[in-house]
Queue: 2 jobs
Job 1
Amino acid sequence: MSDNSQKQELADDMQDIAELYAASQTEQSPADRDDAILTAAHESAKSRSKSANQRRGVYHPPLAIAATLVLTIGLVVLIKQDIEQSSLPPSIDESLSESFSPTIQSSQEETTQALLDQETKLQTSDSAPIPAKASTPPTIEKIQAANSEPLAGVASDKVLGESMPQPQQASSEALKEAVQRVETRRQDALQRARATNTDMKREALAQKRLFAKKMRDKPLAQAAAPPTTTPQRVIPEVDTMPPAIRTAQRIGHQKGEVRVVTDQLEVWYDENHRWISPEQYFALELKRLDGPTYGTVVTYPAYESVTEWETLIDRLADGRECPMVFFHERWRRLPDVLDLDERLRNYGGCADVFNE
Amino acid sequence: MSAYSQGDAAAFDALYARHKDSTFRFVLRQCHCERAIAEELFQDLWMRIINASRFYRVEAKFTTWLYRIAHNLLVDFYRRNGRVFNISLDDSENMVEEPVEKMGAEPHNITANQQSLEKLQTCIEELPIEQREAFLLQQEGGLSLQQIADITGCKQETIKSRIRYAVKKIRQQLSDES
């Protein structure tokens, strides 16, 4: 029989009684209680919205600070890595294949360009036609041929920084000296560049030999490490791991790991790096939840008065105990909620806590 | 209730106005105690509602939730005072339903005079706790058999029997008096 038909049948049976009851019920809730309840309700609503606002207000600044810190640290790390990378010497391969040649070439080009500029200035001062930018430096003969034409100004004096008492002859001699000096400087610069090139090549070769030797001497696992001269970014994998996991990796145990020593269960407690008894473990976990909220009980507290994550220790009739936590509107075994080992879930009173 | 749990005080006012008298009468009749104590229990009930509103979820009708809390409150009250729910002899789950005609006086033969109204109060007070609770939950809360069964943790058939027997007793006593 359906609920509705049952209800209808029952209603028909007791219609007179129901009418009589409805007529007799004139009591109303007392006014003073109404006031007290409504006041409490309004205050609760007010404090709830206030606390919600405060909570929002409380969480915003730390979140903003945390976000700023993360961004700042990230930027600093990136910048630091970039700086380190740019300050590191180029790799051996790069140095051998590319780095040195452009350096020498550029120094040679700079030197040549400086000489050309000087010569151009000299030629300009002698009113000679400005030669096109030659790939090879002008020879002395060319300059001398240019000097055979009459000088027009004293611009060369400014360039060479010397006075010329006799305009034509003196300037010709001074020009020769200047050209010789420029030529000497050019030769010196070229020699220095060649020497530097040789030194750097030698140094790079030495580094390469040293690294090859190290690689031969080191074991295979270590040899895989990148050479110190290679400016590769090393991702600090270990440093980015949470401390708990790093510690667990270092020690080799995980929180809640269970072992049996002389027929006794022991649980690994990561916070103090110790093997402890399940009772101690449960006690520490309850303490971590600010519990046990209701202590050790035989009878559970009323559901309405319990809030989430409150805890208690359920003592069974035979004296065994099981830690319980109020989670998702139900009393549940603490080891279940913490997803512990099966042996802990059935440890002590936990095996029969739901059977009573 | 959902609106109130989010801080809407006006929602609670409306809710309270709708249910205050019926819950007060339920507590008053069911606690079987002095009026002052019933008032205390009534206030305690609504304070529990206020405090528990944060955890209220729309899983069932609000009335069911309200009367479940009232039921638990009264169970706690009985335990504190050393009283227990007595299972009356005629209230077993296996009891055989009798036809309505055999259950006492005929329906619609009781008139609503002042004397019978007063007598009704006495009859209700004299009912066993479980029968009285089922009867009051139906009359005051307007709850269905299934809802009452959910609140009290009994089978629907048991609730139906309790109400039938409660009505039978009331009718019998009223008939005897008349």
Job 2
Amino acid sequence: MPIPEVAQLDIAKTRDAGLAILRNGENPFAFSVARVGTEKDCRDYDVPELLDSQRSDLRAIVDLYRDPKQPSRIFPIVGDSGTGKTHLLTTFQGELEHDGFEVLLLTAEHFSLGVDPLDFFLWQIINHLLAASGPGKRMLGIISDWLTGRLLVEALRHLAPNDQVALIPPRTYSEKIKLYFGYRRIFEKRLKAIRDLSSRCDVPVPADIRDSCEKAGLTPDRVVSVIEQYLERTESRDVAGHLQRQLHGRLVRFTLKAEREPIEDFFNGDYRKGPENLTDSGKLPRRLLVTLMGVFRALQIPVVLVFDQLEDVLETHTESHRRALQDSFSRAVTTLVNNVQNVCLLIFAARGLWNDILQNQDAYVRNRLEQHFSLPGRPSQQEITMPLVITRSFLTQLIQARVRVPLREFNTTGLSPIFPFEEHHLQELEKETSVRACLRKLADVFNRIVHAQTPLGSTALAATNDGQMMAQLKARWQTELVAAKKLIAMETSRPSLIPKIQSALDCWLTYLQEHGITGSGGWSKVEMVSDAAKAPFGYLNVIRFETSDTPGLGIAVWLGERRWRLTDLERRLEFFDAIPCAIQTLVLLRRDGLEALNGETKVSYSRAIQHGRDVRVHKMEQQDVESWMAFPRWLVSVTADISKEGNSGSKVLQNFVRALSEPLVQCIETWRKKEGQ
Amino acid sequence: MSTQVIQSANDLDIPGSLRRRGPALIEVLEESGDAAPLLRKGFVLHSGKRYLIRVRLQPPDGFGCVKDVTVSTSECFRTIVPIVRVEKRSLVEYEVTVRARHVHTLPMANLTVVAINLVHSSWGVLSIRVSMVIRPTFWNQLAQCWGWLAGSTIVVTLSQWLFSNRAMLEWLADPFVWTLILGTVALLIGFLRVASRFTMPFVGPDEP
């Protein structure tokens, strides 16, 4: 029987060639945790069959929020750790972008105890829109373009045809003469240009508005003035009307004149400036929230607030603090849905944590968290559940999706669909309930088959001695540093990043205080003080040294590379006037150090020093900011694995953090001493 | 956690500037179906001719739609066919047929305004004022020009004759004579005012 032998020989050759290609590449099963920067991997390795039902539920939910009268509601997406919740969110985001379905998707990364839910929500929106790059920057462009198109069309429609024609200024002297003497053709041409402009802007997604205006013969200045006059005529004279005029006017300038600074200044505090009735009225942040929601409603852009990995968002180190944070979170989301119309809340949580939250709430909160929702054509449900069973078909597709990328154009004819794995490997995997566990096992088996490596164990951190554990911690730290670098690169120099950095620093300082890594003297309390009225400049890390009530050291981060604005400095200095005053010393961190002080900021700084205030400007490095941002995620990712190692693991972790924190603790030691000591 | 309910019926509304209330299109068409010429001061209409004023509405959105349209005109227009709602596939239009009338005694164009009122189901009335220029017909203009020319010539000749004759000046000093002259002028003006309301028999098509 020569023919089968030849065929078998060919298959063996193909298999060897395939293994050789796989050997030269990366292990495709090593990627098992979706995070910042892994969007492409999520798309490439997605197996639609597994999460199709959940994705279609999410799509149906978000579709509901195109209706401006849809009430706010909480939609929990619950599943065990590693079942693909973050992957689901990432691929869902990609699907929305691919289909051109615009959604304001806000991902909350931190939640502080006692925070006002409405202020929290407002700043989530503002920080997202003011991001220097990524989806936030894109969304600001979309909102301002759509809004400008809508306002321009309505402004033109509120004018009589002869007034519309008069908007286009004559370009040449002959045109001027023809217009004066009423040359009919020239009027007809202008009316057609205006009607073409209206039809180009009156579509759900208007084309380049600036270009359309120029084609119609309208300069950006002229269009801005037409829209401002229209806003003056149509908006009321009360506080809401003033905020709308300001917001719309600045967004129009952003689209037509590419002026970004006015809109940034507006969100960073200029919304408080205005006529007397505005400055005298209270709750301006809330009024601003209503104004912003009105814009999204009018443009039919659904507003979705996402809490991804709730266990990370509510991460803390003490049991009592954890319980308080969970209670605060539950009440906050309940308050949000009760008070703000048209907001969709998606909460991605681990099953255990979600059940824990539900059990500890009173009936009022629980009823809102557990409320059934109904989607068109589907039975009502209480939550979206992640898949509980890993099927054979899914495993086959998973392997094919992952192996396809390194093999690319290699002809796999004759090889098993689960190449390079064998049937018995899949039988073992069918017992698993989470995709991540399957991937980790597949990564090990892949190493064995492709690289002929001996198994390391079920987790990467199952190290047998402290040295190995330390090496693993260091490797994870490097990975998180890279992720933080990417995140900062996207948002560099933006005030919107300040709350995130201060929260991350708070996490680090809290860990240091709880584990006694405080240098020569102890710390009584570490906290993050926030004042919503000061916008992103209202966050301050405070370390109290003597007792938990005495004023301590305040640390404020300012990332700007432009001229330091006086209002920003003054907002930070106002913390000295707060009652009760939380700080004795204020350290202001800037990339350019004392050079940042010039002109009026220098005068204000000198005045503060003369008044006996201990204010210091300290130069910080880029890698400091990256480390602070990396720390919370790194801590969460290693804590679970370290806890399996018992006391020895905790000690290794503490030693690692001690070494890592040495420069930070030294700085705090210096700041603790009085000036001149 | 202290927070205050900020939601009210008004919060579900959208800002005044983003409300879709304006008409999608305003057209003034001649009987032939061509658009009436548009100049700096408005649409140019000719006295005695029929015109169709058409208002096209925007499609309804989630906040309602324009439920009625009215057109208010001045004495320069006479309504021939009252306003009607016309639905063409998804488009909704309102049309009114009017006849333009020149009401000046002077041989110059009339400037007038047509108010188009759009009644929205949620947000009340929006009024847009469209300027119109009504020109008298050529014969009307010519007749008026001749009339004014003849009148001015008579006045100038008469005044020259009066001021050159001493006896006539004395006669003019009599108050009775002045009363007679002023009365005649007033009667003449009254006659012209009444006469201008009627279209001359050789101008434009007949009244229906």
